[in-house]
Write a sequence for this structure.
């Protein structure tokens, strides 16, 4: 951390200050610039025809009537795309995905054709005039069905693909784990399904492709969390020279992982613009967003804990069945088939673990994205935290005591997990103690006992998560070979103001403020005086984008490092101005002063002016730099969430009485923004635990295709949150910060579910799969009663 | 067909198809893009505007239904005297993140405070229950509306302006 003159801290407002957000000025005036707000001269509008069937052969697509409809400029089919070798595109997981279907459709909602018209209403009208001749085929909607020997082969177009199996993946040490289980005193197991959900940002996906046929310049405005990666993928897909592609990601109305992948609509709009010589706009409607773009989870999980007689965990075994949908399009590091799921050992110290995972194709939408989490960490955290609670009860221990007995101790960090992570820092017991104190755990347990005696169902649930965020070190983390390193460029203007250009892309996280504060901390320039530019690939350094809580760990670090690089030159200029040697200069932000003579000083602003007006001979003019950061490790934020619920035994309705969240994300740059991120994550975690569900009927029809069926928490159901913090800095991050944007979505579902299961445990209920709708809770209560 | 709507105090006319949604009339014909479209099914409230002072969801109304009415959009919240207290409060209390739901949330909040200058937390939560926010968890939106209520109570002249 930098040194600042104490009296300057309040004025500079660097790290640790709840600076009001710079970006709000436009949003509160209705002057945000989201994708659908952009209008270009001569712009045409595209709408996509989607398959009504989950699995069907296509015998033919007749576009004659649509092509003749009012306002229609063109109808694009898979056949037309195939003529340009664009009917298929690569996915981020190294598979292929149909852009527009040619041979058959493989999920309901799959892209079949597109209409380009002068008006969006006319484009949609014409979709109804396209005649597609389908032959429905048998449908597969789960990995269990997919692995049956007589299951239809979904990806029959792939050479060598004779079944629906995609990958087998293992992590950890099977032999050591088997030995731990063989000598265990007791084994506790849990089978649970983490259902399919959808990030459902309030703004859907969309783009405007503007390809200039004369110059070959393609400017694509796109709702993208990862504009640079998308540019490179586009260069690879379309064969366009990368210098001619400019991706501009404007203001984004929420992402949560949904806006990481490349979607067929982007490719078709770009091809249409190229062919027609006009800008082409494509904006999804809500149903298109929910039925065809990046879903989340859909993991069937089996977990077993081996326990010693003293209540210590000796080993963990897990096996997963992953439903990947019709195309394997997960957005995650290339080498890791189920992302960072192997962080499943969680916050606990034990010697052996083994993870086995198998992925399958099904007739469902592709694109497993991490809905507000780091690459499958949510599923992992849920499994271990559910298992730990059940294990505690099985051996008659309080779940808080059981966790404490098994926590990795503060003095064990850096800690090497049995699946190969090196946790950077932690103090799990301190976070838990604070959560227990804040919620009044001991009193709650007494209250619960009294309520139980009266026949009321009160429950208390805990989750002590550890997340793995900030991918990542170049030797382990890449997407399609692109290393997950990110850049920052900083230029100080003559008047002492600055522009910071970063490779990440905010979707509401407040980057324009937070990253300015990092520069403020390092150089002593106020955040107000620093413009943060992002989202435009022509005007920002390369990097892999914003998701998986990686912006602060990677771009935040790059911002600190580039500021230090600039400070080195500033020190030289200060020495020149003060006529002393560089070694005699002290930098107490914002002042460069002569050691031992603090009155002899110049400010960073003076230095900036001199960088363009009065620099020493032999020095380049200007004050700027760039830095690409290769993180030495991931960062590992953690915390304990504690939830108190009451369940109505007659209806299964449950409500949250208290929700305490203690997070430790290391140093907090802007505490106000960090707390806002935690509030949001706790709410999405609650939604996942209580109501958010994308499911399918036997014919593969998506249930959850609009906000009437896909339920999101409103202000009425959402719990009131009580936050707490502990601060354990990351030892390897330049300012000690860890990622935090997703901790609460990762950690909280298990806390809510554990609370409900805790309430129902005496009845004999051991598990209910999410979402815990009142109907499912009621059924579990009734089934338990019937069994007793 | 020709429609006349008073938008943010200004008389506007447009020649629109009867099927054109009010959201699109506001966004495309009047070029006021602060009104957003989030769900198409009246569920999320991103498209909320005030019609004759009452919140309505403009994605499930036709533009022609607003003929002859007064419509206020987010662009009409501030006046020559500056920002509405609700706008200041949303920024001060960190009541927004991505900003997409914010126009609808602020308009619902402003309409609530017109009706009830001192709402309880439950009143506020019910008032905004037709508006979904995916980012904030509503905590700071509630705080912002409470802060705006206080600000308005403290400056009666501003409240009646």
């Amino acid at each position: 951390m930098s040194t600042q003159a104490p009296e300057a801290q309040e004025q500079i407002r660097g790290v640790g200050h709840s600076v009001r957000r710079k970006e709000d000025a436009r949003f509160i005036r209705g002057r945000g610039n989201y994708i659908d707000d952009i209008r270009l001269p001569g712009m045409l509008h595209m709408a996509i025809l989607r398959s009504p069937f989950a699995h069907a052969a296509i015998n033919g697509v007749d576009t004659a009537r649509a092509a003749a409809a009012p306002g229609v400029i063109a109808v694009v089919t898979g056949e037309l795309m195939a003529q340009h070798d664009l009917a298929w595109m690569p996915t981020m997981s190294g598979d292929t995905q149909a852009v527009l279907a040619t041979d058959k459709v493989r999920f309901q909602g799959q892209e079949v054709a597109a209409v380009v018209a002068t008006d969006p209403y006319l484009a949609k009208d014409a979709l109804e005039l396209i005649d597609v001749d389908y032959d429905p085929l048998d449908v597969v909607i789960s990995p269990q069905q997919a692995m049956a020997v007589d299951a239809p082969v979904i990806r029959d177009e792939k050479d060598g693909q004779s079944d629906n199996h995609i990958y087998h993946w293992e992590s950890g040490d099977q032999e050591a784990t088997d030995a731990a289980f063989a000598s265990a005193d007791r084994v506790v197991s849990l089978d649970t399904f983490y259902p399919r959900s959808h990030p459902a940002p309030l703004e859907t996906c969309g783009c405007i492709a503007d390809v200039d046929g004369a110059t070959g310049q393609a400017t694509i405005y796109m709702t993208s969390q990862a504009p640079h990666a998308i540019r490179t993928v586009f260069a690879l897909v379309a064969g366009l020279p990368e210098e001619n592609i400019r991706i501009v990601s404007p203001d984004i109305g929420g992402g949560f992982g949904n806006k990481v992948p490349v979607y067929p609509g982007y490719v078709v709009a770009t091809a249409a613009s190229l062919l027609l010589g006009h800008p082409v706009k494509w904006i999804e409607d809500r149903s298109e967003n929910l039925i065809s773009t990046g879903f989340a989870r859909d993991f069937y999980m089996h977990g077993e804990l081996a326990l010693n007689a003293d209540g210590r965990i000796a080993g963990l075994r897990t096996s997963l069945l992953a439903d990947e949908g019709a195309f394997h399009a997960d957005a995650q590091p290339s080498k890791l088939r189920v992302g960072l799921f192997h962080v499943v050992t969680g916050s606990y110290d034990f010697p052996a673990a083994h993870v086995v995972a198998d992925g399958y194709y099904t007739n469902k939408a592709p694109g497993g994205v991490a809905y507000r989490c780091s690459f499958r960490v949510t599923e992992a955290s849920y499994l271990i935290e559910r298992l730990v609670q059940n294990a505690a009860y099985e051996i008659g221990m309080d779940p808080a005591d059981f966790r404490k007995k098994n926590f990795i101790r503060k003095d064990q960090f850096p800690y090497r997990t049995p699946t190969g992570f090196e946790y950077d820092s932690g103090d799990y017991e301190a976070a838990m103690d604070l959560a227990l104190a804040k919620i009044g755990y001991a009193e709650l347990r007494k209250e619960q006992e009294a309520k139980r005696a009266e026949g009321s169902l009160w429950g208390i649930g805990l989750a002590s998560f550890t997340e793995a965020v900030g991918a990542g070190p170049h030797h382990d983390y890449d997407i399609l070979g692109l290393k997950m390193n990110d850049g920052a460029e900083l230029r100080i203007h003559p008047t002492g103001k600055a522009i910071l250009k970063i490779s990440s892309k905010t979707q509401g996280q407040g980057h324009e403020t937070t990253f300015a504060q990092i520069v403020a901390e390092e150089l002593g320039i106020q955040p107000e005086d620093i413009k943060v530019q992002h989202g435009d690939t022509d005007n920002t350094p390369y990097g892999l984008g914003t998701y998986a809580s990686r912006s602060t760990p990677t771009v935040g670090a790059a911002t600190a490092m580039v500021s230090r690089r600039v400070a080195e030159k500033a020190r030289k200029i200060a020495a020149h101005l003060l006529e002393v040697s560089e070694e005699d200069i002290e930098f107490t932000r914002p002042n460069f002063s002569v050691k031992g003579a603090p009155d002899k000083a110049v400010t960073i602003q003076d230095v900036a002016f001199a960088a363009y007006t009065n620099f020493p001979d032999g020095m380049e003019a200007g004050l700027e730099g760039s830095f690409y950061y290769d993180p030495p490790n991931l960062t590992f934020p953690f915390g304990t969430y504690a939830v108190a619920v009451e369940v109505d035994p007659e209806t299964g309705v449950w409500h949250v009485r208290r929700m305490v969240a203690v997070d430790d994300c290391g140093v907090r740059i802007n505490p106000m923004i960090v707390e806002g991120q935690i509030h949001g994550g706790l709410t999405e975690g609650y939604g996942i635990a209580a109501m958010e569900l994308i499911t399918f009927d036997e014919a593969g029809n998506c249930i959850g295709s609009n906000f009437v069926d896909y339920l999101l928490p409103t202000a009425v159901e959402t719990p009131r949150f009580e936050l707490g913090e502990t601060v354990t800095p990351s030892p390897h991050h330049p300012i000690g910060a860890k990622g935090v944007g997703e901790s609460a979505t990762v950690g909280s579902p298990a806390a809510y579910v554990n609370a409900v299961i805790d309430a129902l445990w005496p009845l004999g209920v051991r598990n209910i799969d999410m979402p815990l709708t009142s109907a499912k809770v009621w059924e579990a209560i009734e089934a338990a009663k019937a069994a007793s | 067909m020709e429609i006349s709507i008073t938008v943010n105090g200004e008389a506007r006319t447009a020649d629109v198809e009867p099927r054109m949604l009010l959201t699109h009339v506001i966004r495309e014909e009047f070029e006021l893009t602060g009104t957003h479209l989030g769900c198409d099914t009246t569920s999320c409230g991103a498209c909320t505007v005030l019609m004759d002072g009452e919140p309505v969801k403009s994605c499930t109304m036709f533009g022609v239904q607003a003929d002859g009415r007064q419509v206020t959009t987010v662009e009409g919240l501030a006046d020559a005297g500056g920002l509405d207290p609700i706008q200041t409060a949303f920024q001060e209390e960190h009541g927004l993140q991505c900003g997409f739901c914010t126009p609808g949330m602020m308009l619902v909040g402003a309409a609530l405070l017109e009706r009830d200058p001192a709402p309880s937390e439950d009143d506020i939560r019910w008032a905004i229950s037709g508006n979904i926010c995916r980012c904030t968890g509503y905590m700071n939106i509630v705080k912002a509306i409470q802060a705006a209520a206080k600000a308005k109570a403290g400056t009666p002249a501003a409240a009646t302006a």
Observations:
- Chain B touches chain A through 56 residues (CB under 8 Å).
- Residues 89 and 154 of chain B are 14 Å apart (CA to CA).
- The longest strand of chain B covers residues 2-7.
- Chain B has two domains: 2-76, 85-152.
